[in-house]
Amino acid sequence: MRPWFASVTHLYLHDLQITDAVAMALLDSPHTGRLRVLQFRASELSPATERVFWSRFPVPS
Questions:
Q1: Could you give the 3-state DSSP secondary structure of residue 2?
Q2: Number of H helices, E strands in the chain
Q3: Which residue range(s) make up the domain with 49?
């Protein structure tokens, strides 16, 4: 990711299906600190990754 990405707060990727590796990269990136909303197409994350990921990026109600 690029440093400009650090200013992004909402990311809508409705055509993207993410994997555990992508989810963990988003969680570990120093550039996603301001990211509050992340939406993407349904994915098959492992239960462990899903718990960590959804605690950081809650499902919108």
A1: coil
A2: 2, 2
A3: 8-56
